[in-house]
Amino acid sequence: MPASGTLGGGSRQLLKRLRDVMAGQAAGQERLDRIVRVIAQGLVAEVCSCYLVRGGMLELFATEGLKPEAVHQTRLAMGEGLVGDIALHARPLALADAQSHPNFAYRPETGEEIFHSLMGAPILRGGRVLGVLVVQNRTKRHYAEDEVETLETIAMVVAELVSAELVSEEEAIAAEQGEPMPARLEGIPVHDGIAIGTTVFHRPEIEIRRVVAEDPAAELRRLEAAVGGLRSQLDGLFAAAELARAGEHEGILEAYRMFAEDRGWNQRLKDAIGSGLTAEAAVQKVQNDMRARLAQVVDPYLRERLMDLDDLHHRLIQHLTGEVGKRVLPDDAILVARSMGPAELLDYDRGKLKALVLEEGSATAHVAIIARALDLPAVARVPELRDQASAGDRLVVDGTNGVVYVRPGDDVIDTISGLVAATRAAEVRHAELRDLPAESRDGVRVSLSLNAGLLADLTQLDRTGADGVGLFRTEIGFMVRPRYPSVAEQAQVYGQALAIAGERPVVFRTLDAGGDKRLPYLPYDEDENPAMGWRSIRMTLDRPALLRQQLRALLTAAAGRPLSLMFPMVAEVAELVDAKQVLELELERFRRSGGPTPKTLRVGAMVEVPALLHQLPALLPRVDFLSVGSNDLLQFLFAADRGSQRLAGRYDALSPPVLSAMAGLVREAAAGGVPMTVCGEMAGRPIEAMTLIGLGFSSLSMSAAALPAVKAMIRSLDVGSLASYLERLISAPDRSVREKLRAFAADHGFAI
Ligand code: PEP
Ligand code: MG
To answer: Which atom of ligand 1 is nearest to the CA of 629?
Structure first.
């Protein structure tokens, strides 16, 4: 009886036969032997073999058609041979001529040389590969797509048996072999901070008890009800979320809704039910397929979207199995997830969460943006964590350095506890500083502002006592949306930002997209050097409609209030002139329509391309202020990629060329009467901020987390003596003057 495809009765009958075998009294191994026989027969294959992962290798556990002596003898590494390939990539293969495939590995003990065609599917549970199910034929058989689907479905049924009886025992034995050791795992830092707490897995595996459907029509009805439940859950979630009022997270929710209403997705679920699966097993099958696709995808945006979809699948399974609702968390929960949708993080009680660790993900993932907005220490890309840690284990998360300690020893805990206590004490001290002026011992007053990208960042204004927002990176709001935001949507966000800031000024930077800040919905031709490519003002001047829309939104939002805006990545004065012309067009439009214009309008430029340093006489009369983007300025000054790990630390911001460039800039801007701020990372590091102040800068903008320490440093400073010392350092031959400055600060009691 040939399998007749996903929707066919043949596939359903085969599943029923398998279920009967599964429900029988026989022991695990015997049942597996019967299962491979049933599958071989059902799929009209001469061979059906089941390989399972044991001790990191793929071991032949059962076969119909290969030599029985090979069972428990043939072992393949992950990635070895075609079976290893299927396991490694967690995706099926169907080959009419398997032996000509470059990965074919011949195992003489199996006697498989006479079989030419091969079709295999991974046996998956919770995204993990438990093994591989393979059928083989003597002829060069072309397996149809629906036959591959059928095999994948069968693999799900087999996964049940594996999890219940075969390898779990092995795992139990392995677990008894001594105390688990501590481990130190490295990932990438997502959000600063240190936390000690208890491991909580974001998605403890939901056990699917029924895989094969009795009544497909009833399963379809269950699916429909669950999809409806899921939609209302998503609606409620965001309506209730504290951050929803910030408006900008709507974009994320929209991406979810898009999937939930996607007909292709719904159809795939229905097809899987049609092939004989229960609704929850159907969701799991579609989820497995997606995960296999995910592994192939390199485009970071698409990966993020597929991860969002993974989240939806999990939610749907929860609806189907009745496991919806909040979990009970320990008070010091450290959440561990393979990947995570942003909505899921919002689901947790923030009061109990201490940190987040992702096995996958990136610093730009939606969930990372939310983690930052919630001020949750976070580390991403720690792939081995789930293998190393168990629920309830003690974890230390160092979000600043991107390190996770699993079951750390007392010495690590002591050190970290000391650090956590010191950080807390510093926070208390810093809170006391909140209302004190950022003024040096010799009476130099420095303005301290915040860098922001999300509205949630603006809530830090009150907490830190900052003077305003020195850099509002508008592109972040564009990056978290699934499509280009309309003028009204942009205006709403900018208006809210101004409302939260109240009397405090906000400097909006126009769209600085491109380079490493790609907008997923804008097509790009990849430049060879994206940081020096078509980005930022280059892009918005080439697409003036985008710039006009953004300026219109800013003018609309500011109506009757002061507005400060600046243009990023200006390389030549002519670009600024062009941009100001676009602004003039929009202003004219406002005047004509009689709409309220801003109370005052200040226009500035970012100084982050070295060419601008050589055009100051032409630039200064055309701007109301300047803002130094030291991150880009330094990468272009040294021709050293700011994101390169290998170059990090090679050139120092505290070096004669940088001091000289900054000193010249301060001198000329002061002579031209143009106020200037530094808004790159330099401004937020105490010793670097100290140096900038010594060079004559009196306005700095930085992240909220950095501000208290910078203020404390300023209050300990004697600017006069520092300035004279710096004059000498500018012409020093040293690669770096950091140590000299550190020593000077120590000698003079400056709190760096
Ligand atoms: C900079 O380049 O210093 C800057 C502040 O801009 P961004 O980091 O957003 O490029
Ligand atoms: Mg920049």
So the answer is: 3
